């Protein structure tokens, strides 16, 4: 099956897409193990999409336990070329209020030891990652948000997402440090996904849904899971409307993306000299370069 060009990864609070029609569950096995859950394949206004609950439908996986490689590989195996990640984030800036939406264009990596590459085992590749988000996909998300009437939701285009290890939230000193770096929002999941999506030549963009002010804000309580879920539940309807409108626009006018040829100048190892086993494992990603 290779007809699903649009993928959605739902994070904390977004475990399903209510508007999906003709739904079927697809259990995918990959050379990197099983994804977080079955992929839910269906149609949104006639357009095929694949949805995956990042932490599993019952939220059973910690950020550090997520099978990032399997998740992205599974999306690629269905034919996904555009991947929208909906994620709960804490805000590090006063102007990004809870329930606002941010479209980050940069990341800072504060994770530890997460495997964020498909490569190794005899094949070396270094993708360009100076612009980690597909700007054309983010622009479609931005246009979709702007076209909708979302009361009390401000849109922030651009910004830096700090990806921390978790699962504990930050200390106040850390939160203030990230603020001093000029970062906009904080979460625990999107950076490995963005790297792997780029290696898989999938255009990736984050729809960051602000749920809290982390712990730095003098006038707000420090973040708790209750706070995150209650705000994201309020936001889930909006997020689904945004995704639906984004899918409609992508189906009408799929934009070009530099991500779609990210491996063109990234692979250092001559593939005719590479181990057959690794080539077989990465065939899905490498096939257009294998000649
Ligand atoms: C439940 S609060 C912390 C949790 O929420 C975010 O998840 P996701 O990015 O999947 O929406 C954050 O990254 C943490 O994993
Ligand atoms: N304050 C926060 N820190 C890290 N991840 C989050 N997800 C939602 N809020 C968060």
TrEMBL record:
Name of the molecule in the record: S-methyl-5'-thioadenosine phosphorylase
Residues of the site described as Important for substrate specificity: 170, 225
Gene Ontology cellular-component annotations: cytosol
All copies of domain Nucleoside phosphorylase, residue ranges: 5-247
Organism, as annotated: Thermoleptolyngbya sichuanensis A183
UniProt entry tagged with the keyword Transferase: yes
GO biological process, any: L-methionine salvage from methylthioadenosine
Binding site for phosphate: 12, 54-55, 87-88, 189
Source organism superkingdom: Bacteria
Similarity comment text for this entry: Belongs to the PNP/MTAP phosphorylase family. MTAP subfamily.
Pfam family, one: PNP_UDP_1
Role summary: Catalyzes the reversible phosphorylation of S-methyl-5'-thioadenosine (MTA) to adenine and 5-methylthioribose-1-phosphate. Involved in the breakdown of MTA, a major by-product of polyamine biosynthesis. Responsible for the first step in the methionine salvage pathway after MTA has been generated from S-adenosylmethionine. Has broad substrate specificity with 6-aminopurine nucleosides as preferred substrates.
GO molecular function, one term: S-methyl-5-thioadenosine phosphorylase activity
Pathway: Amino-acid biosynthesis; L-methionine biosynthesis via salvage pathway; S-methyl-5-thio-alpha-D-ribose 1-phosphate from S-methyl-5'-thioadenosine (phosphorylase route): step 1/1
Catalytic activity field: S-methyl-5'-thioadenosine + phosphate = 5-(methylsulfanyl)-alpha-D-ribose 1-phosphate + adenine
């Amino acid at each position: 099956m290779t007809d699903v060009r649009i993928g959605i990864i739902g994070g904390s609070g977004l475990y399903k897409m209510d508007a999906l029609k003709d739904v079927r569950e697809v259990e995918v096995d990959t050379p990197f193990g099983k994804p977080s859950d079955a992929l839910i394949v269906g149609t949104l206004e006639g357009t095929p999409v694949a949805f995956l609950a990042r932490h599993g439908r019952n939220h059973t996986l910690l950020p550090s336990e997520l099978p990032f490689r399997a998740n992205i590989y599974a999306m690629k195996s269905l034919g996904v070329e555009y991947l929208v990640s909906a994620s709960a984030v804490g805000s590090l800036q006063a102007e990004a209020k809870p329930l606002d939406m941010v479209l980050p264009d940069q990341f800072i990596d504060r994770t530890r030891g997460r495997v964020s590459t498909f490569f190794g085992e005899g094949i070396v590749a270094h993708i360009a990652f100076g612009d980690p988000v597909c700007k054309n996909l983010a622009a479609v998300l931005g246009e979709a948000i702007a076209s909708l009437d979302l009361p009390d939701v401000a849109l922030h285009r651009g910004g830096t997402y700090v990806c921390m290890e978790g699962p504990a939230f930050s200390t106040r000193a850390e939160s203030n440090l990230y603020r001093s770096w000029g970062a906009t929002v904080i979460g625990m999941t999107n950076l490995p996904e963005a790297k792997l999506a780029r290696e898989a030549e999938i255009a990736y963009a984050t729809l960051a849904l602000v749920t809290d002010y982390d712990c730095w804000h003098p006038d707000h309580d420090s973040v708790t899971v209750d706070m995150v879920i209650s705000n994201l539940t309020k936001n889930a309807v909006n997020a689904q409307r945004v995704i639906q409108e984004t899918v409609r626009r992508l189906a009408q006018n799929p934009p070009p993306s530099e991500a779609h040829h990210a491996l063109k100048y990234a692979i250092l190892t001559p593939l005719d000299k590479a181990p057959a086993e690794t080539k077989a494992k990465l065939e899905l990603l490498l096939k257009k370069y294998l000649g």
